[in-house]
Inverse folding.
């Protein structure tokens, strides 16, 4: 049963687990054509996300138009799984802790400071961010470096919209994202597992890629706190830790910034951290993954795809040795 029933009556089928890659890819582009064709006839398709747990969460609804160019055909991870199995170390290191502890996070008022190598530095409050560009629904896979993945209907817009607004100077070559670090709200900060605040970074051309999503919602609603409310990054071709949650600052830099996981273990976590089944983590293989929500004794692991299947980013890394720049 497809999770997404479109108002025009077209239900999109999901490819089965065992569909060979080529068939999957061609079917995917075929389905995209249907989606784009239908969109041409009646404007962008609206995906209504019908997940009982999401409805029951009572979170504020957030209207968004589906962007058919960014819809993976995998079945969406149930909301319950996506919001109770999280990595958000500011709330503790067990997967269940963010859901248990993030209730204390105050997401309004909230501001994001944009500074550094930009002609128009600014501090945007969350309402301005919500209005900065039309909100889109995009269904992305996200692959954690630990070997699991999820498929989530995010709401947001390309980070490039924000970047254009602040007008980077010619010297802006990198971006640094900083997460909130507030001892009163985040019990996980007491543990010295990472250097706080959590920082992440991107090269300018990566940040400008349309896939790079600034997200403010999921499953038709505002982000739940454990998922990085009120605003986070989603970089589906990179390991999950590159997608910083609950962002309070974005800094444009001349030089490559330090990143939290690279500071903690440089040998294990590089700056780029593109999903790559051919480059193992020093302590485990990255060749396969399990999809959260469909684990079972007999569930076969999925093959991890280069760039998590997002081949459109490959040109960003042309000529780079991806074993060296892991
Ligand atoms: N601030 C912050 N952002 C973070 C993390 C974190 O611990 N703190 N964990 C990262 C990791 S390891 C992953 S896999 C994703 C998980 O996102 P999800 O819980 O929404 O699936 O968030 C990333 N962003
Ligand atoms: Mo992760």
């Amino acid at each position: 049963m497809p999770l997404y029933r479109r108002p025009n009556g077209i239900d999109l089928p999901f490819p089965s687990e065992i569909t060979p890659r080529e068939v999957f890819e061609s079917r995917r582009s075929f389905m995209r054509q249907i989606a784009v064709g239908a969109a041409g006839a009646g404007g962008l398709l609206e995906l209504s996300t019908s997940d009982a747990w999401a409805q029951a969460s009572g979170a504020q609804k957030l209207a968004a138009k589906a962007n058919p160019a960014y819809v993976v055909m995998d079945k969406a991870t149930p909301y319950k799984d996506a919001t109770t199995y999280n990595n958000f170390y500011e709330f503790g290191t067990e997967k269940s802790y963010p859901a248990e502890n993030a209730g204390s996070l105050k997401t309004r008022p909230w501001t994001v400071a944009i500074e550094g190598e930009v002609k128009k530095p600014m501090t945007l409050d969350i309402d301005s961010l919500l209005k900065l560009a039309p909100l889109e629904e995009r269904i992305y896979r996200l692959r954690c470096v630990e070997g699991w993945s999820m498929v989530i209907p995010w709401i947001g817009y390309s980070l490039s919209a924000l970047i254009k607004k602040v007008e980077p100077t010619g010297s802006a070559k990198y971006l640094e994202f900083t997460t909130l670090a507030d001892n009163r709200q985040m019990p996980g900060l007491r543990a010295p597992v990472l250097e706080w605040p959590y920082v992440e970074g991107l090269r300018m051309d990566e940040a400008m890629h349309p896939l790079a999503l600034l997200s403010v919602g999921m499953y038709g609603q505002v982000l739940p706190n454990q998922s990085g409310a009120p605003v986070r990054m989603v970089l589906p071709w990179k390991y999950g830790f590159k997608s910083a949650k609950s962002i309070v600052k974005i800094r444009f830099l001349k030089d490559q910034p330090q990143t939290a996981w690279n500071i903690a273990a440089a040998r294990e976590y590089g700056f780029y951290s593109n999903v790559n089944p051919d480059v193992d983590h020093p302590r485990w293989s990255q060749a396969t993954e399990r999809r959260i929500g469909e684990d079972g004794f007999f569930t076969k692991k999925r093959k991890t795809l280069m760039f998590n299947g997002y081949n459109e980013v490959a040109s960003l890394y042309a000529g780079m040795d991806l074993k060296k720049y892991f």
